[in-house]
Amino acid sequence: MRLVLLGLPGAGKGTQGDRISEKYGIPHISTGSIIRESIASGTNLGQEADGYISKGELIPDELALRVVHERIIQPDCKRGWILDGFPRTVLQAQELDRRLAEGGLGVQMAFDIRVTQAEAIERIAKRRMCSQCGAVYHLEHYRAKGKGICDKCGGELYRRSDDTEETARRRLSVYMRQTHPVLHYYGQDGRLYSIDGVRPIDEVFADVDHYLQKLVKDDHVGEAR
Predict the structure, then answer these.
(1) In a domain, 111, yes or no
(2) Residue 13 among the catalytic residues
């Protein structure tokens, strides 16, 4: 499976990516997480990216492509991968297709997790993340069992510095201007699948998994029984 998750910031792409990864055993690759790790460690790549992210802007195409390509050629991606937060521009989507085509591969499905802008802003402002494993929670809809403590690893939960309403509005504006056209790019050849994201997590995943089953069936066509 080679999948792309699209949708407004706060739509729940990360949560769905984790679910897919857990069920099908392929890595969930969040470009945002990779970049944040680079920023925290003070690498040249991180410093370069931080100048854009801190302003709510997208990092340049070439920088993003370098990060993603280096990740998807790793051994754990041999059976497939889930890209979350990439591609963010049509040029990135085109270049990703070009690079994959060189190896006889391609993006098989792109999912648009749909929420309203008002819902996205509310989710971002009330989002909390685990400082250790990166698990995502919400102060109302998906709360940790222990106050301020991650259910999975016991790490401390925190609010990302860019998870403010002001920054969220800027990010949404950037998304609509630069990333929304990517939906049309994948839609023109039938690779885009639209999912209603304003529902319980399990219901959203059930819809996503319904489409993924087609890939599973196609992969087994012609195999000996």
Answers:
(1) yes
(2) yes
